[in-house]
Amino acid sequence: MRRQPINNQIGDYVKQHFTLYIFTIVLFIMGVIYGSIIIQSLSLQQKQEMIGYLSQFFHGLTSNGDTIFSKKIALKQVIFDHLKYLGMIWFLGLSIIGMPLIFILIFMKGFVIGFTVSFLISQLQWKGFVFSFVSILPQNLLIVPAFIIASVAGVAFSLSLVLTRIKRNPYSALTHQPFLSYSFLFIMMGAILVVASGFETYVSPYLMRSVANWFY
User: Fold this and answer.
1) Which DSSP string do the residues of 144-181 spell out, in sequence order?
2) 58: pLDDT confidence band, cut at 50, 70 and 90?
3) Is residue 6 in some structural domain?
4) Could you write out the DSSP letters of every residue in 33-59?
5) Residue 12 within any structural domain of the chain
6) Is the residue at 1 inside a domain?
7) Is residue 140 part of a domain?
8) How many domains does the chain have?
9) What region, left, alpha or beta, does residue 185 occupy, with left being phi > 0 and alpha being psi -120 to 50 degrees?
10) Higher model confidence: residue 77 or residue 65?
């Protein structure tokens, strides 16, 4: 039996899980919206503290004190954070009860982005929009799709475990090809996140510093 070309396999996979993709994307967008709204509920003291952190951040950017050593440390930390989040989704996908937790993780990912962008815009107006555009958008063009794809894969695998449990064969999804395919997809998403981490560590600070110097 001849195997399908890889592009046909990807197309079939997306069609098969199209509803899950729509639901996950909507859930992520809801997280962004909720994060942008919750900023209005912060107390004056909380906003002042965050403004203080923001001022320190801009001061650090304009001082240009980065070294190759500090960049390597930052890169390792960013990669670790992204892969830890990805690993949590992979692990939860191996559990029947992991599905709702995966949805919570993707919602929180959207919440953090929405909260950050909303805070920057609320404090810096159009400057905050420009700063968000150069500091948050570029790497998230890779990060967000990678996490959405991983989340759909995790939920789909968790659902397959439920179906095999109903069929009284609870371990079939964890053996051979399904598990290998599931894990390989996460390895690919991990590679994308490593690339995004490199951009976030080496390119984004340069863009942010350029914008910060332009502002101040």
Assistant:
1) HHHHHHHHHHHHHHHHHHHHHHHTT-TTGGGSHHHHHH
2) low
3) no
4) HHHHHHGGG--HHHHHHHHHHHHHHHH
5) no
6) no
7) yes
8) 1
9) alpha
10) 77
Q: What domain range is 151 assigned to?
A: 18-215
Provide the Cα torsion 207, 208, 209, 213; round to 10°.
Answer: 110
Residue with tokens 């332009």: 214
Q: What is the DSSP-derived secondary structure letter of residue 18? A: H
Show the tokens assigned to 10.
């990807």
CA distances from 80 to 39, 75, 77, 130 (A): 28, 8, 5, 28
Render pLDDT for 128-162 as a digit per residue (tens, 0 to 9). Answer: 888 888 889 999 999 999 999 999 999 999 988 87
Token pair, residue 136, equals 């948050």
| Window from 104-108, 178-182, 212-216 with minimum mean pLDDT | 212-216
Where b means 16+ CB within 10 Å and e means fewer, 121-144 reads: beebeebbebbbebbbebbbebbb
Q: What DSSP designation does 2 have?
A: P
| Whether the Cβ atoms of residue 111 and residue 39 lie closer than 8 Å to each other | no
